[in-house]
Amino acid sequence: MNWFGSTTLAASLVVIACAPLRAETLGPVTDELGVVKILKGQPILIGGYASQSGGDTNQGIAELHGAELALKDFGGKVRGFPVKFNTEDAQCTAEGGQTAATKLAANRQLVAVVGPSCSSGARVGAPILWNLGIPSIGIGATAPGLTATDRPAGFKGFLRVVPNDLKSAEFQVDWVRSKLGLGSVATIHDGSPYTEQLVRAFEKDFVAKGGKVVASEAIGPSDNDLRPVLTRIAGRKPDLIFTPVFVSSTGFLLRQKGEVAGLKDTPVLGGEGVFSANIIEAAGPAVIGFRIVGPSTEQFSQRFPSFVKAFETEFGEAPTGGFSAWGYDAMLVALKGGEAVAKADADGNLYIGRKALRDALFATRDLPGLTGKLTCSAEGDCGASIYAIWEFADASPTSFAPGTNPKKVFP
Amino acid sequence: MSSFDIVTSSFRIHRRRGHAVAEAVRAGAFAGAAAIAFALVGAYLIMDRRFVVEDIITLAQTVVLLFVLGGGHAAARSAARDGATAATAIGFGALAGLVAGLLFAAAILLVAHVGLRSHLVAASPMLVRAVTFLGAPGSAVAAAVLVTAGTAAGSVGAAAAMLRADRRTAVLIGLAALLGAGLFRDVFAGLLHNLPGLAALEPMVFGVGGVTPVAAAVIAVGAAGLSLVLHHRRRPPIAASTRRRIEGVLLVVLLVLVPLVTDAFVAQVAMLVGLYVLMAMGLNIELGLAGLVDLGFVAFFAVGAYTMALACSSDPRAAVHLSFWLALPLATTIAAVAGLLFGLPVLRVRGDYLAMATLGLGEIVRVLVVSDAMKPYLGGSQGIIEIARPSLGGWTLDTPLQFYFLALILAALVGLVSWRLQHSRIGRAWLAIREDEDVAQALGIDLVAAKLLAYTVGAAFAGMAGAVFAALIGSVYPHSFQLAISINVLAILVIGGLGSLPGVVVGSLVLIGLPELLREFGEFRYLFYGIALVVTMHLKTEGLWPAVARQEATDA
Amino acid sequence: MPDPSDLLLDVRALGKRFGGLVAVREVDLAVRRGSVHAIIGPNGAGKTTAFNCITSFVKPTSGRILLDGERIDGLAPHRIAAHGVARTYQNVRLFANMTAIENVLVGEHLRLRTSFLDIVLRNGRFHREETAARARARDLLDFVGIGPRAGLLARAMPYGDQRRLEIARALATRPRLLMLDEPAAGMNPAEGMALVRLIERIRDDLGVTVLLIEHHMRVVMAISERITVFDRGAVLAEGAPNDIQNDDRVIAAYLGTRSTQEAHAVKLRAEARTA
Amino acid sequence: MAPRHERLEALAEWRRQSTWVDGVLLAIRLGVAATILVGFGGSLVAGTYSIGNIASFVVFGLTIGCIYALVALGYTMVYGILRMINFAHGDVMMVGSFGGLFAADALSGAGVLEAAPLLSLPLVVAAGMVVGAGVALGVERIAYRPFLHVRSLAPLICAIGMSFVLQYAARGLFGSRNRAYPGFGWMERTFEVGGLTIPMLQVVAFVAAGVMLAGLLAVVRLTRLGRAMRAVAEDRDAAALVGIDVGRVIVATFAIGGAMAGVAGVLYALVFKQITVFLGFSLGIKGFAAAILGGIGNLPGALVGGLVLGLAEALGPALLLEGFALPAPYQFKDVIGYAMLVMVLIFRPQGLLGERLADKRA
């Protein structure tokens, strides 16, 4: 078998020369992880990866579009150099994240990356990038472990602008228990790592605060008839239903809740994933009274409506997923970081040190983003984790304008 | 039912060709419609960001141009077949181009001046701006430019049709080479960068987005010239069997060398291709040899992956802590057992019903894996993480390239086993079942046993692929085991050529490799994937590398 | 009634209904060991259905089928083959995309013993058995007279050769009873006579009992020791060729069904065209 | 009760004829029976649901079931005639649903929808039908017609390709956001029957599905086209020999199947109110499962299969899984549907109402 022979031979010959990162001096910059040199007239490359196909398409596309708007608002340039935004599809799977990150990393001119949408992709993708000295700024990846203090070395170059699940859950439980004083909840997740994790964090906090979880249910992301599962929940008579599921499922849930005896007046609390105009269309009149958790800040209330308008003009539809604003902020952090560390030489070429960029990103303080003031912790959590509960008050699809619809009800 | 499957009924519908003018308008309309669809679906804007030739022509422009060139070409060919002179034929090509240009320009004007966006999201001002080369967006000047360009492109396409066959091929090959270089810029740039002595060429050939103008000219002319030279220096035709052998050797060389000299991304893609080759070889036993249509194949992939995860992870759910090298045969065996268990009940089900039954089983497995009920054992939606990488005497496999060679070696092994099975009493029994189940059974073949064996072996191969997959990614999540994988593997077999081992490799390269290389077109890559499936089946119904009919050379 | 121990195949009160249609009713059939036994009858008389019942292609509604005194009715078809019953088909059913010798090798399947492991390892056992099987297959192809065409794809062979190949394939299972369904269909008289000689050699040289359905009376009369006449799903008459030729009921049945015979002729022409 | 020796004889006969596979199948049968028994019994004991709950489950099941049934019709017709699975059928339905949406939007913009829902509904349905039929014809033209004369898996792969194309082209054209159907005036109300609140639109959808099915049956049973369809389904070559234009019959079959999918798409949107470009895939698979459940190639079977599947999904978790005290039983909704499908295929491959197609398929 010459197949065999040649293959084994070749395999044994492979001595992987995965050039280790080492200190490098180019132009005016010396950096311990290497320097990216951008010739005059060439663009600065920033990568992006998110779910552009598969079940979470809406989220991913909204995130990347948000990032593009940030770039546009920034003037499309850093220190006079045009910025090119290369995006790749990471789906919402580990292997998608791996392949997309590998593809992005293949371009050695790449300076930084925003994304991905999902924690499963970040878990694999972020180390691939950082092992080559490329920092990445997560958008929808909310799993707490990614920025835990004991995270593996591969995540030392990973930041995220979205707050992690634990903080979000803590806030929501606080509202439900302390503010509303409700004693029992039902939870629903859709089998995705994101919603399941959030639900578990919520349940844990809720029980710790003396509440009772009377039903812990799950559905499939493509289920359309949720009335049976709602009937089951109705039998347990919860004071509130907590469910961070995505737009379609939330729409079905809100619309069908009214058809199930005993749930008509049970309030529903949703997650950031549905903070978009699209939920109004998906849920129709049933959206009125629906509450979700979202950013609390002044900036967000002021700037998000015009962001949505700009988004619609640019891409034909309003953001379809809740994380577009964080896509915007992730890009903003990246651009600011680049601006801070890029150095030009006499010939007009630009130099960016990789370690320097990473450190600059982690040093982000009080950056006015779309979701609030962004300040990065030593672990890479940059999200303005100041939350609010928002309530929808109008069912007209064009009425989406945070501040009025939905309006902030707490704090 | 007869085993002679040449159906004799003759109700194929032939379209009658009309007058040359009508044909030209038709060709133009097709080209125009394709261009409009391309634009309104949003692909234009995405592909407009990528240059084929740096700062000269974008990918989107190239695609639209190709539509119109093709339209003009078709119109001219049609006219020439009716006996038109070259000049007239070019005129018809221009007509086709004019029609295409008019349609496209009209559509753009419509987009610019009528609000279509509530229904068609890509009908945006950005699109209008992107196709405006002169004048104000949406103006008559801009439209006129499009119409003129269309007419010109149609004429050029027609002129190409008037060339001698060898020159036409040369032009085509030149263009294809250029397009390939531009489209797969990253691959070729990585190749240049890593080839000793050629690294200096990289910045000369490739810009950030595409090929540099000078390099473009060199590539196009070079490829065209090479084609001409080869055409005229053709030696007496080589025997088909020899050619196949040469192609086979080339394929192997390609498989071994290319990932070695390109970058990590190509290795990663090659690795995925390798995994699919493993899986497809498994399905090839089931479908290609025994004729069992299986749409739940992903279940065995999942079983293999989860076995590896539960055997090699540091997760508390892990049952044992084995090394990769012990877990691999274990995963293969457990997948085989799963195949046996699934196969037992379903294999009395025939034909398309089997497809549905297996699809059902695959979905059941997926739901079970993701479920909260199984979470204590399988990790639920959070999957199982921290799966140890394989190591050999202190040397750990962790780059995609290393995994690629692991997959390649396994694929070679599995290919060898497949080949040996195929050419044995077992393989003959499978083929007999595929040809005519009843007759095979009447000859003493125990259908259930034979099918079960095929199913089990197929499942084992898929399980092996799953195990490598889990070790490569380092984690398993239920979301990785979608029905789409089963469909993909099925498509690989049919596109490659049922029952053909080289076909499996070619099919995987095309259906896994290409979409991965097109990853940057995100939301559109599955659109292209779908189109590729349809087009391939139309051009090569038997697959890209069909199995050779096994005629023996005893007589001639 | 012959001595039961002399019977190879003993069919008793066989019945088969398809929904409301009775295809075979109360059929008794006794085939003596070492004989050539023919079944004749107009189209739709239930001959092929009876064949299908014997080889378990369909499950009989009632009755018993004994091979060498052992019940085989209701067994799965491959177990019937293992009991030593092989058959050919009215409209040739070869494995079209396999070569002639491979077709025969499939017939050998029952007797091959190499295990999965032997095959994967390609050890000496595998090579020995494979060589022997191929030699036997070649002998069989020679026996039916198509030895030189062993390497041809079945679908590329002329019709007459396909019929012979089908017989060779059936013989490869080493049957005790060979059932031929209209083996002479579509053959000219010369080919028919060659077939007669082949069947005689199968009986005499190989010691295989032959049960055949046939319409060509010359063939039937030339080789059969006994003939059973089917009509409308039941046995109309049984006896030696001479008796049958002179049986009034048989003659009446055949005259009365001219139209079906015409239909049969039409069908044969159609078959010839597709082949 | 039969005498003991007769039973023994029957047992001996079974043992003589059966192989080890029959033993395994018997064991599976027993296992399934035991599972159902335990689950059902346990569910009754658990007593989570009231009779009223169960009654509402039946209503839910019937509503989604009639949509499954309409999708199943398209599969079953195409399969009956071509012996091929039209993989793109679910996406035909999705596009039909969008066709209906645009019509409804236009009517709503003109104020007609609110004012005269009973008049508008047929128009919206018709739009869905026309679009569905048109797309189905495209699928036939591209994925099936070129391969009529060869026996291969090419049409299946082409149809899969078309499924991708339709899905992602629709995403590109219409955007990925969830779209809501506008309100249908008084049809949006609900009414009460025996303590059950039933949305009017569900009744409308149910009736519309029934009317469509009746019409389709009439076409197939009574018209020349229907006769031709049945003839082609029986034996394509023979039908061609007696002068039936087989090509045209196939085209008509796709058109009718596509129109039914369009209706299904519109009715789906009426009941569930929001659509996305990705709804076709899962509904298509469910519809196909329903077709097989009822007996593929059998039109009333599609109806029965759809309703049975709908009911199984709605009732299964409550009546079966509750007994096992599983966490989050509704996660297993699809498992129940698919398990039932697999069981039917194993033990009754011709489907609930089907003829023994399995024999013919050999």
TrEMBL record, chain A:
A Pfam family per the record: Peripla_BP_6
Keyword Acyltransferase annotated:
no
Show the InterPro entries listed in the entry.
BCAA_transport, Leu-bd, Peripla_BP_I
Q: Which keywords are on file for this protein?
A: Amino-acid transport, Signal, Transport
SUPFAM superfamilies of this UniProt entry?
Periplasmic binding protein-like I
Specify the signal sequence span: none
Q: Which residues form the Leucine-binding protein domain?
A: 43-376
Residue runs in coiled coils: none
Lineage, top-rank taxon, reads: Bacteria
**What biological-process terms (Gene Ontology) are attached?**
amino acid transport
Spell out the family assignment given in the record's similarity comment.
Belongs to the leucine-binding protein family.
Instruction: State the name under which the record lists this protein.
Output: Branched-chain amino acid ABC transporter substrate-binding protein
According to its UniProt entry, this protein's organism is: Siculibacillus lacustris
From TrEMBL, chain B:
The reply to whether Glycosyltransferase figures as a keyword in the UniProt entry is no
Q: Where, per UniProt, does this protein localize?
A: Cell membrane
Entry's transmembrane regions: 21-44, 56-76, 88-116, 136-163, 170-192, 204-229, 249-277, 289-312, 324-347, 401-419, 452-477, 489-514
Q: What is its main location?
A: membrane
Output this protein's name.
Branched-chain amino acid ABC transporter permease
The membrane topology noted for this protein in its Swiss-Prot or TrEMBL record is: Multi-pass membrane protein
Q: Quote a single Gene Ontology cellular component term.
A: plasma membrane
Q: Name one GO molecular function term.
A: branched-chain amino acid transmembrane transporter activity
Listed A to Z, the keywords are: Cell membrane, Membrane, Transmembrane, Transmembrane helix
User: Whose protein is this, by species?
Assistant: Siculibacillus lacustris
Q: Name one Pfam family in it.
A: BPD_transp_2
| Stored InterPro entries | ABC_transp_permease, LivM-like
Q: Which residues are in coiled coils?
A: none
TrEMBL record, chain C:
The protein's UniProt keywords, in alphabetical order, are: ATP-binding, Nucleotide-binding, Transport
CDD domains for the chain: ABC_Mj1267_LivG_branched
Q: Which GO terms describe its cellular component?
A: plasma membrane
For this entry, the protein name equals: ABC transporter ATP-binding protein
Q: Which residues form the ABC transporter domain?
A: 9-257
Query: What is the species of this protein?
Result: Siculibacillus lacustris
One Pfam family this chain carries?
ABC_tran
Q: Where is coiled-coil annotated?
A: none
Biological processes, Gene Ontology terms? D-alanine transmembrane transport; L-alanine transport; L-isoleucine import across plasma membrane; L-valine import across plasma membrane
A single GO molecular function, which one?
A: ATP hydrolysis activity
- PANTHER family for this protein: AMINO ACID ABC TRANSPORTER ATP-BINDING PROTEIN, CONSERVED COMPONENT OF ABC TRANSPORTER FOR NATURAL AMINO ACIDS-RELATED
UniProtKB/TrEMBL annotation, chain D:
InterPro entries from the UniProt entry = ABC_transp_permease, BCAA_transport_permease
Keywords per UniProt: Amino-acid transport, Cell inner membrane, Cell membrane, Membrane, Transmembrane, Transmembrane helix, Transport
Entry annotated with the keyword RNA-binding: no
Please classify the protein's predominant subcellular localization into one broad category. membrane
Record localization = Cell membrane
Q: How does it sit in the membrane?
A: Multi-pass membrane protein
Q: Name one Pfam family in it.
A: BPD_transp_2
Cell membrane recorded as keyword = yes
User: Which GO terms of the molecular function aspect are on file?
Assistant: L-isoleucine transmembrane transporter activity; L-leucine transmembrane transporter activity; L-phenylalanine transmembrane transporter activity; L-valine transmembrane transporter activity
GO process terms (BP): D-alanine transmembrane transport; L-alanine transport; L-isoleucine import across plasma membrane
Give Gene Ontology CC terms: plasma membrane
Tell me which positions the record assigns to the signal sequence: none
TM stretches of this protein: 20-42, 54-82, 94-113, 119-139, 151-170, 196-220, 249-271, 277-296, 303-323, 335-353
The family note in this entry says: Belongs to the binding-protein-dependent transport system permease family. LivHM subfamily.
The protein's name: Branched-chain amino acid ABC transporter permease
What organism, scientifically named, is this protein from?
Siculibacillus lacustris
